[in-house]
Amino acid sequence: MIIAALTVLGLCLGSFINALVYRLRWQETHSKKSEKYSIAKGRSICPHCKQVLQPKDLIPLLSWIFLRGKCRYCKRPISAQYPIVEASTAVLFILSYIFWPGLQDTAVETADIISFVAWLGVLTGLIALAVYDAKWMILPNKIIFPLLILATGSVLAQAVLQQDYNMIVSSAAGALVGGGIFYVLFQISGGKWIGGGDVKLGFLLGIIVGEPILAFLMLFIASLLGSIFSIPLILKSRLGSRAKIAFGPFLIASTIITSLWGGEIIDLYNNLLML
Fold this sequence. Notes:
By secondary structure, the chain is an all-alpha fold. It has helices at 2-29, 62-66, 81-99, 110-136, 141-162, 166-189, 196-209, 212-235, 248-272. The mean pLDDT is 90.
């Protein structure tokens, strides 16, 4: 039942992410305000014909399948981004539940439930950031700053509930590793190697992973994923040697990996080296 509920929740929040990204982009690129594109009050519309969509058009994943990837009204293609984001969010919610520490124990602690709920909120925001950065190579403050508040609040709540205030110090150190390295690169290159949004994202992700060693692991995995993605494209001449790619999605993917399996990865590494 819990997995079924998380599947539905993930699909619905995935649909919300798609709407959030679209409306936020419109707000960022238009000086004139419009309630139609309000995040809180706006109605979902077709990006092509601007037709207001009906509830039957908005069933996550299923509507896209039944409509064969086309708008019901103008028949123009609907981006595969919509079902991919919806399905990916649901899958990540399920994986998070399966691998989140303490949730599979017989007696689940209140602190574990609170941290998991906070994680789902953070995860939703991270997916939105990844989609936005992948499309427009921008990491908007309107998503980053609320996530900073949520992540910091979660750490403080966990420290109080568990009476372990070392968690605050550890998360602060993780933030310094995640954001500090990017800040130094940003200053040295004058913003040519890495953007200011990546610096803020680095601080956020350092807080989320919660430990300096996990922050280093997060950066390593992100670099590895970025290399795996970009090197084949460069070799095929689809990207020039000076071409820019959005690094945010790789950082976010590595943060999810580190948050769910970071401890196991470090243990495996230590065992391989017989440490």
